[in-house]
Amino acid sequence: MGYLKLRTIFALAMLSICISCGQKVEKKEVDEPQQWLTFNGKNQESKHIVLVSGDEEYRSEEALPQLAKILSKHHGFKCTVLFAQDPEKPGIVNANYVKNIPGLENLEKADMMVIFTRFRALPDSQMQYFENYLKAGKPLIGIRTATHAFNFGKDADTNFAHYSNGYSGDKIEWTEGFGRLILGEKWHTHHGHHKNQSTRGVIAEDATSHPVTNGIESGSIWGPTDVYGVRFPLPGDSKPIILGQVINREGVFDENDIFFGMKPTDKILATENSEGVKVNDILMPIAWTKSYQIPDGKKGKTFTTTIGAASDMLNENVRRLLVNGVFWTMDLPVPQKANVKLIGTYKPSAFGFNTDEYWLNKNLEIVSFQLK
Q1: Under a CB-based contact definition with an 8 Å cutoff, are residues 164 and 154 in contact?
Q2: pLDDT digits (tens, 9 = 90+) for 94-115
Q3: S-S: 229 plus which of 163, 188, 192, 342, CB 3.0-4.6 Å?
Q4: What is the C-alpha separation between 59 and 64, in angstroms, rounded?
Q5: What is the pTM of this model?
Q6: How is the beta sheet containing 92-94 ordered, strand by strand?
Q7: Helices (H) then strands (E): counts for the chain
Q8: Nearest Cα to 198, choosing from 249, 271, 129, 131?
Q9: DSSP for 196-223, written as a single string
């Protein structure tokens, strides 16, 4: 996926955000490459959330700025959003560049991390910030591809190979990598038919009173991304909160439609996916809670959801699920019905691998176009 131009938008952003969002962004020189975005909180005491994007498929670089705006504007958190970038082109976000995410030093003083990356192979100097964060037992949320957030080649010169998806080395505690140890699952399978079967979220029977479900009616969560497969039982004290029904597309497949012809009104439960696997006999969790503890580290809390792509976030209760998860994971009272109204004009891209390029306009919203 392409690029987000962050370089000289800041001067325009300052004025437009104050008008349209009531927000301010930390000041930097206009001619200095703007490599990450920070939205101020309610006051100096506001909790600081660092949102780490970096995936080539589900447009985390579009989803996380919008989530940050919601958390900042409606709930008073300070939010910093980080992006993948080629170090030779600072300030231009390239989701396909897997070896650099500038700004991870923000994790040193962060109160919360939201991670939405896919198969990153970052230098040790950057991975150390994740290690320090996890050793401190701080809370985090993993979205969609965060189950396979990191991946290093067999010959990679790194001290963090154990973070890799499916790790099977000498560090037994880290077997299967970051996804399994920290979040509860690594990359497993597409349970639903990719681009053809959508996801409807229903509340697990024993989670109807869980704070993460506040303000969410069972069945109201929907997204065009398919249900991911997980293995049962999820490890440790994992607790499924939302289960994913696999829903057949009732309309005509349309590659140019943001939902690929699927619709939020689709209701038909699928019997099997494209490989003939029964998909709704036993529902896969698409959101769950878990505690984690890495060797020599403190115990912490995680919330994982495999729904949350940029296009999924057009659904109000997908947004509410994420916001609720932030409050719960930080041990803060979860609002009875969190305000998750979109900030500005939100027109996300459909998920999929492509080479479209993206700029941030003066309102820090994504405008897509293709450079020749």
Answers
A1: no
A2: 899 999 999 999 999 999 999 9
A3: 188
A4: 9
A5: 0.90
A6: 92-94, 3-5, 357-360, 366-369
A7: 5, 16
A8: 249
A9: TEEEEEEE-GGGTT-GGGTT--TT-EEE
